[in-house]
Design goal:
5 helices; single chain; 263 residues; mainly beta; four-stranded antiparallel β-sheet; 13% helix; 18 strands
Length: 263
């Protein structure tokens, strides 16, 4: 069962159980390699839900009336085919992220569901832009709007932004690092150079900061060096580096730092 179907099943069960007292619910979703399990406690609905910041994601407030119940996820774990249990630990390090969880209202992409399409009010729903990375941490969904220049001034260009930050990108299995590598003198004058590397290990954000941003040479495999900005091509679902295309799913900007472990 896919993750979207699992979420739909959980939502359906929670809506069916109109409980006024806490109860314990165990949800198990089977997959090809293991079973994903959640321990969920059902709680009475709250009058309102205020915005909070957790796991580098800021949620939105909700003040409308809610029928049914609330729920709290107590723990998550995986069960392998050999019956071994693997605990899924949260990454609560309150790390700062560059972009908000949701785009601004004037630039947010809107979508209609079947429930709203036939409504006279035709109220649109916003599309989420957060995905979980290979370390089970929330990152931004890769898109053109996330890597595009933020303005017409040179200081607002993404190429200039990489002087202060490094960009990490992920496919379904691999993680890459795009970082500023200094300037070079050409016939056209001074130009910025960039390095594109593959990360050897999938590390959480806190561990990457401990090693330093960009990562040390021992932690990456350099794929392309001394790149000019024109050699990096951006597309809606991929990027091309010196003619080689990479299908990207997630992205995350991190401020350059030396790292606590190197000090």
């Amino acid at each position: 069962m896919c993750s979207s179907s699992a979420a739909a099943c959980i939502w359906h069960v929670l809506n069916m159980l109109r409980l006024s007292t806490p109860a314990l619910l165990l949800c198990v979703v089977a997959s090809l390699c293991a079973a994903a399990c959640w321990q969920v406690t059902l709680l009475p609905p709250q009058e309102q839900y205020t915005s909070c910041f957790r796991n580098a994601v800021r949620s939105r407030s909700w003040f409308s009336k809610i029928e049914g119940c609330s729920y709290k996820v107590e723990r998550c774990w995986l069960v392998t085919r050999s019956s071994k249990q693997l605990e899924l630990q949260p990454r609560v390090d309150d790390c700062a992220i560059t972009h908000p969880t949701f785009a601004l209202s004037n630039s947010d992409r809107q979508m209609n569901t079947r429930s709203t399409a036939g409504s006279s009010r035709n109220k649109p729903l916003t599309e989420l832009t957060v995905l979980y990375n290979l370390c089970n941490e929330p990152w931004m969904k890769y898109s053109m709007s996330s890597v595009a220049d933020r303005g017409l001034k040179s200081s607002q260009w993404t190429s200039s932004r990489l002087r202060e930050e490094s960009l990490y990108l992920e496919t379904s299995r691999l993680r890459f690092e795009l970082s500023y590598a200094g300037t070079a003198t050409t016939d056209e004058g001074q130009v910025d150079n960039y390095d594109f590397a593959q990360c050897k290990r999938l590390l959480p954000v806190s561990a990457v900061r401990g090693l330093g941003v960009p990562l040390p040479a021992a932690e990456v495999e350099l794929l392309e060096d001394n790149l000019t900005w024109d050699e990096i091509k951006w597309a809606n679902m991929s990027m091309t580096v010196r003619g080689k295309q990479y299908k990207m799913l997630r992205m995350h900007f991190m401020t350059r730092c030396k790292g606590s472990q190197a000090q």
